[in-house]
Design goal:
Layout (H helix, E strand, L loop, with lengths): L1 H64 L5 H32 L3 E5 L4 E10 L2 E11 L5 E5 L7 H8 L4 H28 L4 E5 L5 E7 L6 E7 L10 E6 L2 H4 L2 H12 L2 H11 L4
Antiparallel strand pairs: 1-2, 2-3, 3-4, 5-6, 6-7, 7-8
Length: about 280
């Protein structure tokens, strides 16, 4: 009786094992069929895209050579314009997403997607400063149509470098220039507000050349500090020169340290530190 029972159990296990194997094989076959179908679909898309690309290249060559277009090719040209416009809008929407993550500029679509307005919000520290706007036409080649970017910003140079080839690089570089300019201007305002004993003798429109006059604490000798900012995307100077009629003071170890401090810190913070240290009045 036990032998019969055991035999029945073995038979049942064999049936289950066979069913499981059959199920696995069916799943594998279904997966293979799905992959084969996907491969066929992708190959068809590849062939279609290759044909469209070849047609667009031929069309572009005719345009470059000034050859007349046939009726069908004129229709293709309209489709090409729409494709390029959609492509640019997709790029800009990606940039819009990046803006919400990292900040720096905002994008607004205008004229049914034919142009965009870019707003650059500048800030220094925890304070929002000026906002600048730039409108770009997206049809055919990207063109700047209107803007209120300060004339001292090398907008034409930045556009020539990246506008047609890399939207993101153009917008990021322009944002860096605008924020650095706003930051340098804000530092000058803070000098006048926080360090009233220091006089701003000279500055230019870009605020990348600054001459300050202060007085030494001990001798009250006048000291000229000249700050130059060769990197227009930064708020820290790249060169600081110290001058005084008292040459021993300007060449002293203490003022060598002060010179380094002016290189390494925002100018208003460096001047406040110099006053606390007793170097200036």
């Amino acid at each position: 009786m036990d032998i019969v029972r055991k035999q029945g159990v073995f038979d049942h296990l064999m049936v289950l094992e066979k069913a499981g194997t059959t199920g696995q094989e069916k799943q594998k076959q279904d997966r293979l069929d799905e992959l084969r179908s996907t491969i066929v679909t992708l190959r068809a898309k590849r062939d279609r895209l290759s044909a469209e690309t070849a047609a667009l290249k031929s069309l572009q060559n005719k345009l470059d050579q000034g050859q007349p277009l046939e009726v069908d090719e004129a229709d293709d040209l309209m489709q090409l314009d729409q494709f390029l416009l959609k492509s640019r809008l997709m790029q800009l929407k990606d940039l819009q997403t990046a803006y919400h993550l990292i900040g720096g500029y905002n994008l607004i679509e205008n004229k049914q997607g034919k142009s965009i307005c870019v707003s650059f919000c500048t800030a220094y520290g925890d304070m929002y400063l000026e906002t600048f706007n730039l409108e770009m036409d997206l049809r055919r080649t990207v063109q700047i149509s209107r803007h209120n970017i300060p004339p001292c910003i090398p907008l034409d140079k930045l556009a020539k470098e990246n506008l047609q080839t890399d939207f993101k690089a153009f917008l990021e570089t322009l944002s860096l220039h605008l924020n650095a300019l706003a930051g340098r201007k804000q530092q000058i305002s803070l000098i006048k507000e926080l360090v009233g004993t220091v006089e701003v003798i000279e500055k230019n429109q870009l605020c990348n050349f600054l001459v300050l006059m202060c007085k030494a604490q001990e001798s009250e000798a006048a000291i000229l500090c000249t700050l130059e900012y060769s990197d227009l995307t930064k708020c820290l100077p790249t060169r600081v020169t110290i001058q005084s009629k008292d040459t021993t003071l300007a060449e002293s170890p203490q003022w060598k340290k002060n010179q380094a401090l002016l290189m390494e810190s925002p100018v208003h913070i460096a001047l406040l530190t110099l006053r606390k240290m007793g170097s200036i009045v």
